[in-house]
Amino acid sequence: MSKFLLPFSEGRTSRSLFSSTGMLVSSFFLAAFVSIQNSLIYVLFILGIVVMGGIVARTRWGTVLSLISKIEVIILAWLLIIPLIYGTTVLFQISLPWGTLPVFQEGVERGLLLALRMITIILIFITTLSHMTLSEFIGALKTLQVPTAMLGSLLIMLRFIPLFMEERSQMHNAQILRGYDLGNRWQKIRSLGNLVGTTIDRAFDRSIVVYEAMALRGFGKGSMISETGVKRSDAILLVLLAVLVLSMLFLIPHLELIII
Amino acid sequence: MTCAIDVSHVFFSYDDFRMEDVSLQLHIGEQKVLVGLNGSGKTTLFKLILGLLEPTSGSIHVFEREVTHENLWEIRQDIGFLFQNPNDQLFAPTVWEDVSFGPRNLGLSKSEIDERVRWALEIVDMIGYEERPVNQLSHGQAKRIALAGIIAMRPSILILDEPFTGFDFKMVSNMIEIINKMRQDGVTILYTTHNRFFIENWSDSVAVIENGRIVYDGSTKEAMDQKIVKDNIGDWSGLKHLIRSFNEGIR
Ligand SMILES: Nc1ncnc2c1ncn2[C@@H]1O[C@H](COP(=O)(O)OP(=O)(O)O)[C@@H](O)[C@H]1O
Ligand SMILES: [Mg+2]
């Protein structure tokens, strides 16, 4: 299991064509572009492009997909809730003991669009991050003038949230070894509550100590991770983005015509 | 003689712990062991020296510069601090990234950074582990990588908080070899241990801290006869008697 929340290509100094800054900025623009698309076909088209881009760049899909699968619940929730609250055209009704629940057609379409947009945006970011190391990522944020204090918190979060999760599961194992399963439901809930409390407590202490360790080795004082800067080849990314946007404008209306 | 570390009449307090009138000097090249029971304030004293905590009164000088907010980074470049728990110290994804963290902050060139990292990993005998995620290291390996991360910054002073805990015999001798190499280069060393063997055989001088006060400070030779030193190192033969009499009670 990856101990990091984000899918960085650990250790390997990536020899990618583009600078991490360029990749990050492009993915940001692409994501913004996706977020303003109101047609399912457009979003699907971009999703296809992203997947193709990933295949060309030899993305490690295993890592990417396992991370996406962790948030599928949230996406599913959108997909299920929006049809119940948005729209006017009733598609059908679900009868429940205490009344009927209308499902709106606009809601279904909108939920689908939002979910697809979200998946696409998340895929864009995770795929991009999987092509850089942690220090390249931090370096890119530095190039983009993100303040050091924020970078520090980010570093600690990235390193320690997974560590906390592991610690939590270890403490839970310790509970099991001391008879957790024998307790009644209420006792179990209490033990789990304690677990969460303790984990957060420790997390807090831990992050202070780690910040001290980072400060002792010059975090925030020295030059830290150097800015990664931009590469000339980043221009290619710009061109690709422009081509994508233009193709969306010209190509897809024709596609729609053909389909219809 | 100039001091590497000069702690002078330092006061400090946590909610329920007070450090009172602590003074301590380390000469350049000296190796001092700080002895004290758990909770006596050893780690707290180290944090004061490193400027992680601020004394309520008194002063601390490192190579004749007072530890203040303005020169923290200068002073921290001179001192390498090995935490008691290596996991508190390692935070980068891989060994290479972690060891190179300090040198990068020193603003060295890429080739200098590479050279420093290789040099440090060679000293701690961990060449070949560069790509290894830091959370996949054993306790001994993690401690050595933590040490590598410190010596890669080439400090003139090393402060080691219980460097041997959890080590087997081989790891201990390895660690001593590493530190001795640093000593040969004139590095000043301050460390803590609970083990009488190291105190007796691996220090120039001994300081004893008891409830936040320095109660003894002198050469190792003289220290070993002092009652106050013996009391704080503890008498393990007393423990032997305790166990014997208990075992006889069972029979
Ligand atoms: N962050 C803290 N907040 C409050 N009290 C602390 C903190 N850290 C240590 N202490 C207290 O200070 C005393 C000395 O701790 P410490 O310096 O870690 O001792 P040692 O390293 O000698 O075992 C202990 O009583 C401890 O409980
Ligand atoms: Mg301690």
Structural description of this entry:
Chain A is built from nine helices and two strands, in the order ααααββααααα. The longest helix of chain A has 32 residues, at 185-216. Chain A has a two-stranded antiparallel sheet. Chain A has 260 residues and is mainly alpha-helical. Chain B is α/β, with parallel strands linked by helices. In chain B, the strands form two sheets. In chain B, strands 6-7-8-3-9-10 form a six-stranded mixed β-sheet. In chain B, helix 7 links the parallel strand 7 (157-160) and strand 8 (188-192). Chain B is globular, with a radius of gyration of 19 Å. The chains are: A mainly alpha (260), B alpha/beta (251). Chains A and B meet through helix 7 and helix 8 of A and helix 2 and helix 4 of B. Bound molecules: adenosine-5'-diphosphate (ADP) and magnesium ion. Adenosine-5'-diphosphate binds at residues 14-15, 17, 36, 38-44 of chain B.
Structure, briefly:
Chain A is mainly alpha-helical.
Salient structural properties:
heterodimer, A: 260 residues, mainly alpha, 2 domains, two-stranded antiparallel ribbon, 2 strands, B: 251 residues, alpha/beta, Rossmann fold, four-stranded antiparallel sheet, 25% strand, binds adenosine-5'-diphosphate, binds magnesium ion
Give the DSSP E fraction of chain A (strand runs of 2 or more residues): 5-15%
Give the biggest beta sheet of chain A.
Answer: 2 strands, antiparallel
Order of H and E elements of chain A:
HHHHEEHHHHH
What is the CA–CA distance across the termini of chain B?
61 Å
Give the helix tally of chain B. 11
Bound small molecules, which ones?
adenosine-5'-diphosphate, magnesium ion
The number of domains of chain A is 2
Trace the largest sheet of chain A across and list its strands.
1-2
**Unreliable parts of chain A:** none
Please state roughly what percent of the residues of chain B sit in beta strands, choosing from under 5%, 5-15%, 15-25%, 25-35%, 35-45% or over 45%: 15-25%
For the largest beta-sheet of chain B, the strand count, sense and barrel status come to: 6 strands, mixed
Principal-axis shape of chain A: flat
How would you describe the shape of chain B? globular
Number of domains of chain B: 1
Give me the CATH superfamily of chain B. P-loop containing nucleotide triphosphate hydrolases
Structural class by sheet pairing and helices of chain B: alpha/beta
CATH architectural designation of chain B: 3-Layer(aba) Sandwich
Strand line-up of the largest beta sheet of chain B: 6-7-8-3-9-10
